[in-house]
């Protein structure tokens, strides 16, 4: 980039950082005006001034497919964030035999399925994207769901992934038999794979409450993922059950539009007030002209989410104090003391997933919106009767009651012939090795499975790191001359012990009920800092934690574990990458 452009972009970026820190104050308005002026100047510079170096096609984290080796048949299940990212990386590395199975009729996963009013991301959009495909055109700080769906579709098209996706293809079972994965689809079709990658995520099996009388409701009852985008809320009395991220978005989108909105709250949430700024056309044009600047915004938000935010949940008390103060101040926006009392949580901030909204409290005070803090007693044909006997009349009932977040890899019914199913082996708690592979299940990789980073971090970023690790394992498999890789059982036990010992310091065990905990109250997400996750994913794998098995003809070991006499024979495994 030429000197003047560099000077102006530096100036713009400093103003952006200061503005984001100063909140909706007078100073922020001054900075915004300064930025608009810089944007105009940048757009007037000659086009040659904008050039940024092109990123390498294959990132440093992994290598290209060895053309002397046979192409493995790779099946990815799920064409959401995980499946698309994995396929891009495999294609960039020269793998060609890739099939993506997707139950829906379009790509995007969560962002394809969730069409409820107000659906949006609550991670800054400049960071909620792949590092290899930044988007200068985001319309808002928190992009609407449809924009993210379109972004993912655009990535799939731009990297040649769309033709690899078989839509309307729901997987019913995956069985490792005769040294390959046999993947069966509902309807009877089947295909085989050398490598199976589950990218189905964990936010897709709806959790529906078992409420008395539910079947008697005369109106329309839907889970948040089943909202009919054609439904006009005007004149309707809408009940929303839940107060998580989905519910809060739905309530704000319907407030003042529907005749009434009744919010059925079981537990109040801490709500972090982050304004959802709209971006000007001038800013979008300027960012698309100066891709380096979009990259710097990505880095800025990555540092914020992985820094203060990502460490607050794993023991950074100073960072927790900052978020607690902001949420407590936000509660002051509630004028009515009784309503404020009902909305005040009695558990530590971030114990449940923090809700981001700068509009929820305002909208709860809209005269047409009613917070119902009494427990739901039963559903009746006219609506909901709460435990105090009050009937809340409703035309539409929306269950924003979340997902079965521990139904990892469901409903894929993964098993090894003659061995346990994945579900069965996880009956006492879901497990993985370093979040991407599972002991006992050869050539199976998992994105968004047990011990992945989640919370309010960017799924895109987490997925990208996991795909880098998986790519290295695939590189190592090729190097080894073997055809199967599986984590050793003792390595997985050691990893789980590490995660559980760190779980004690996390906010998730501070005394609330949340979807981070499984039925036994065990935390099954990454329990160390995001930076440590990054280092583990980019520094790994340590190949001594894996068994690499030779081709079936010369195999003398159990493919589920790799543990038997002759371990190491016929292998050429490189040494540990982790220090
Ligand atoms: P959620 O966070 O699990 O919230 C579910 C809500 O339903 C909670 O308020 C829960 O109350 C309530 N609930 C569940 N069963 C109930 C019952 N039987 N009776 C009364 N209330 C009941 O679900 P979500 O809001 O769909 O969000 C799930 C996750 O999706 C989020 O945490 C996030 O990771 C993701 N998401 C992300 C975004 C985004 O912007 N990136 C947007 C939406 C969702 P309790 O608290 O008492 O259990």
TrEMBL record:
Q: What is its EC number?
A: 1.14.13.-
Q: What is this protein called?
A: Flavin-containing monooxygenase
- The superkingdom listed in its UniProt entry is Bacteria
Q: If you read the UniProt record, what top EC class would you report for this enzyme, in one word?
A: oxidoreductase
**Does Oxidoreductase show up as a keyword for this record?**
yes
Name a Pfam family for this protein: Pyr_redox_3
InterPro entries, per the entry: FAD-bind_Monooxygenase_sf (IPR051209), FAD/NAD-bd_sf (IPR036188)
* Region (Disordered), start-end ranges: 544-579
User: What PANTHER family does this protein map onto?
Assistant: FAD_NAD(P)-BINDING DOMAIN-CONTAINING PROTEIN-RELATED (PTHR42877:SF4), L-ORNITHINE N(5)-MONOOXYGENASE-RELATED (PTHR42877)
Q: Which GO terms describe its molecular function?
A: monooxygenase activity
- Which keywords does the record carry? Monooxygenase, Oxidoreductase
């Amino acid at each position: 980039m030429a000197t003047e452009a560099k000077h102006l972009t530096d100036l713009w970026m400093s103003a952006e950082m200061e503005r984001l820190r100063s909140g909706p104050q007078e100073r922020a308005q001054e900075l915004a005006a300064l930025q608009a002026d810089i944007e105009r100047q940048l757009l007037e510079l000659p086009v040659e001034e904008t050039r940024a170096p092109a990123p390498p096609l294959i990132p440093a984290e992994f290598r290209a497919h060895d053309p002397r080796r046979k192409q493995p048949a790779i099946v990815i299940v799920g064409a959401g964030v995980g499946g698309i990212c994995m396929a891009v990386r495999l294609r960039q590395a020269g793998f060609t035999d890739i099939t993506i199975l997707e139950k829906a009729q379009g790509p995007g996963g969560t962002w394809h399925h969730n069409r409820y009013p107000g659906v949006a991301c609550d991670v800054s959009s400049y960071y909620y994207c792949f590092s290899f495909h930044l988007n200068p055109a985001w319309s808002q700080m928190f992009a609407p769901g449809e924009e993210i769906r379109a972004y993912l579709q655009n990535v799939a098209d731009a990297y040649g992934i769309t033709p690899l996706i078989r839509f309307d293809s729901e997987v019913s079972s995956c069985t490792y038999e005769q040294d390959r994965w046999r993947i069966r689809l509902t309807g009877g079709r089947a295909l085989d794979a050398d490598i199976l990658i589950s990218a189905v995520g964990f936010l897709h099996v709806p959790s529906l409450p078992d409420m008395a009388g539910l079947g008697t409701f005369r109106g329309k009852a839907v889970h948040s993922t089943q909202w009919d985008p054609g439904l006009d809320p005007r004149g309707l009395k809408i009940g929303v059950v839940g107060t998580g991220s989905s519910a809060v978005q739905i309530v704000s989108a319907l407030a003042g539009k529907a005749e009434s909105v009744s919010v059925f709250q079981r537990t109040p949430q801490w709500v972090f007030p982050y304004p959802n700024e709209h971006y000007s056309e001038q800013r979008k044009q300027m960012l698309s002209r100066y891709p380096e600047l979009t990259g710097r915004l990505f880095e800025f938000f990555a540092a914020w989410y992985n820094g203060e935010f990502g460490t607050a949940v794993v023991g950074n008390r100073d960072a927790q104090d900052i978020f607690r103060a902001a949420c407590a101040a936000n509660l002051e926006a509630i004028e009515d003391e009784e309503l404020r009392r009902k909305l005040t949580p009695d558990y530590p901030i971030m114990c449940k997933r923090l809700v981001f909204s700068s509009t929820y409290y305002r909208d709860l005070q809209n005269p047409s919106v009613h917070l119902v803090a009494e427990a739901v007693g039963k559903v009746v044909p006219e609506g909901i009767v709460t435990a105090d006997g009050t009937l809340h009349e409703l035309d539409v009932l929306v269950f924003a009651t979340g997902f079965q977040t521990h139904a990892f890899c469901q409903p894929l019914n993964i098993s090894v012939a003659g061995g346990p199913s994945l579900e069965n082996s996880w009956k006492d708690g879901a497990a993985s090795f370093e979040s991407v592979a599972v002991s006992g299940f050869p050539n199976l990789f998992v994105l968004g499975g047990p011990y992945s980073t989640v919370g309010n971090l960017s799924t895109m970023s987490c997925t990208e790191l996991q795909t880098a690790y998986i790519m290295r394992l695939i590189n190592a498999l090729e190097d080894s001359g073997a055809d199967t890789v599986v984590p050793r059982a003792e390595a997985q036990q050691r990893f789980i012990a590490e995660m559980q010992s760190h779980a004690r310091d996390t906010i998730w065990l501070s005394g609330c009920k949340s979807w981070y905990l499984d039925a036994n109250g065990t935390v099954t997400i990454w329990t160390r800092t995001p930076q440590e996750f990054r280092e583990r994913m980019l520094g790994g794998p340590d190949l001594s934690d894996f068994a690499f098995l030779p081709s079936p003809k010369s195999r003398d070991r159990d493919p589920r574990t790799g543990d038997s006499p002759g371990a190491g024979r016929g292998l050429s495994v490189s040494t540990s990458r982790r220090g």
